[in-house]
Write a structure and sequence with these properties.
two-stranded antiparallel sheet, alpha+beta, two-stranded parallel ribbon, 6 strands
Length: 134
């Protein structure tokens, strides 16, 4: 019997919880999961953390998932802390532009109100900056 990515992640989480930890350390827990399994897994972790009084620390590359499911975000740049705080404090266009070298638009999620990061296409970025966009 072969487990799906989402099932395998839940098995690993169950193994960790069986040890009754006070802190859950999760390294890219949503890697290789489809969008539905990503949301389900992070909902499960958030619910378990609140229910059991655990701290959950997750390394995530998806800034939008981090914003939706995290109380606090620590943004690293070359192994050093570039920004730390609530999603609204950390996920700003200025900070993301400085750390990642890209232009973005940050706007509130229409349902959750938390910041969501939209990558500005190079052509739109040039046009917005007063260039010809060609």
């Amino acid at each position: 019997c072969r487990l799906s990515g989402g099932e395998a992640q839940r098995v690993l989480l169950a193994r960790a919880l069986a040890q009754e930890p006070r802190v859950l350390l999760l390294d890219e827990p949503t890697a290789h999961l489809d969008l539905g399994h990503q949301a389900a897994f992070l909902e499960l972790v958030r619910g378990l953390a609140r229910e059991r009084g655990l701290a959950a620390v997750a390394a995530l590359h998806d800034l939008n998932l981090a914003s939706l499911y995290s109380d606090r975000i620590l943004l690293l740049e070359r192994g050093r802390v570039a920004a730390a705080g609530t999603p609204a404090e950390v996920l700003t266009a200025e900070t993301i532009g400085r750390v990642y070298g890209v232009r973005v638009v940050v706007q509130p999620h229409p349902l959750a109100g938390r910041p969501q990061v939209l990558l500005a296409p190079p052509r739109a970025a040039a046009t917005a900056a007063g260039g010809r966009g060609r």
